[in-house]
Amino acid sequence: MKEVSFEVEKGEFLSVVGRSGAGKTTLLKLLLAEEKPSLGKIFFENKDLSQIVDFSKYRQKLGVIFQDYRLLSSKTVYENVAYVLEIMGYPDQEIQKNVSQVLQLVGLEKKADNFPRQLSGGEQQRAAIARALIHRPEVILADEPTGNLDPYHTREVISILEKINQMGTTIILATHNQEIISSLKKRAISLDRGKLIQDNKKGSFIL
Amino acid sequence: MQKILIQRIINFGWQNFKRQKPLALATTSVLILSTTLISGLFLFHGISGKVIDLLKERADLSIYFLTEVSEQEILKIKEDLSQFPEIKSIKYVSREEALERFIERHKKTPFLMEALSEVGENPLQASLNVKTFQAHQYAAVASFLENAPFKNLIDKVNLYQNQRIIEKIFSISSTLKRIGILLSLILAAITILVVFSLIRLSIFASREEISIMKLVGAPNLAIKGPFLVQGAIAGILATFFAFLLTFLFCFTFSSKVSIVFPGFNLFGFFLSNLWLIFLFQLFSGVGLGILSSLFAIRKYLEQ
Hints:
The structure holds two protein chains of two kinds. Chain A contains seven helices and eight strands. By secondary structure, chain A is α/β, with parallel strands linked by helices. Chain A has two domains: about 130 residues, 3-Layer(aba) Sandwich (Rossmann fold), CATH 3.40.50; about 60 residues, no CATH class. In chain A, the strands form two sheets. A six-stranded mixed beta sheet of chain A has the order 4-5-6-1-7-8, with helices on both faces. In chain A, strands 2-3 form a two-stranded antiparallel ribbon. In chain A, helix 3 crosses helix 4 and helix 3 runs parallel beside helix 5. The longest helix of chain A is centred in the C-terminal third of the chain and has 16 residues. The two termini of chain A are about 15 Å apart. Chain B is of the alpha+beta class. In chain B, about 75% of the residues lie in helices and about 10% in strands. Chain B has eleven helices and four strands. Chain B has a four-stranded antiparallel beta sheet. In chain B, helix 1 crosses helix 9, helix 7 crosses helix 11 and helix 9 runs antiparallel to helix 10. Chains A and B meet through helix 2 and helix 3 of A and helix 1 and helix 8 of B.
């Protein structure tokens, strides 16, 4: 990636669009500090990411949704969603309450005791969304969250993200789905071969 | 907050342990094997120490005097000898006492009794029974006696045979000690390697999970902790079984060991060292379990 420079305001819903291989996933990996930039700087709340030694605290402020779900296969849906709260030290009662609320929100309350391998793709994605929301992060990074879903579930996932955004959470959504962007009518930045080629406030974009 | 995190780490570890039964079984078995063997070596060390003590207690040097030497002369020599710092104790056995002991010991052997009455007078010699602090000091005492001013009063010194036995036991025991330590170390190393490989396999299988945990913000402790707990649980279980095995072994073979080493009670030794053996096993079992996990996970936690 090069010549990518942009700013995201608190509470914004930003879509990152571009063809496969344009650098969307790499951009999100950089934001998550999963990869380090060889040149340039990334700031979160005015803090330079390269100055952070222990990323766990930083990552606890984010919620991540991966295209391939990345649920913990040895834990049940409930445990997957509760995990972040558990490592953050929330009391058990609060965890129980929040997890069942969020599972209800994504419609998985009946699958709480299932393991990820017992779920369909859409259900796994919803479990991953529940995990990303559970600790009320400041920013949600979503990498093609609808990539493996049918149009019905796609709309459902996007409407969940919109709802969370309305409650004040910043969303950064990477996608190559034109329909989503058009229906969102929100700011979108376009990447092409690792370069930022357009920053559009109204949600139209070029692939 | 730290406390609740530690509680949860223990929970995660226990959960992993339960959900990965084959791994748990393999790890625990290896730990049982090595913990039992290591405590076997510990017991063996204890046994050899006890046996040496028993033999040392029995080892002595006897100076037999010619029958015409008077009691005063012998007691004077006893006094001279007791000046030696090496000598722990000296006991005088008079001719009469020696006879009494002889009769006591052989009264059921009519042939010896007849021979004794045929001799008429008391044929036994008075003697001094010397014990030193260390086995090798007997040689020094013996060589002094060879050149002592009263050496013409002495008929014979009963030492050389005993001394050879003592020296042999000492060299065997110190060799055993060295071998025991070496064996324990080798065994511990093998255990660490095997358990390390087992846990590493499990960590390798969960490397995807480890990376996910990192990405959702788990601190290193929360990732490493459960694996260490898994190792510790295997160690605790192994201690329990190893202790049971050691108990059964001591209980079963105590009487057999007493036949080989009269006066030594293996089960009694086990009971009197109960806590020591238990703690020893707990430390080696849990220590080996945790250490192996620690080695195995280190590599996967680099940021």
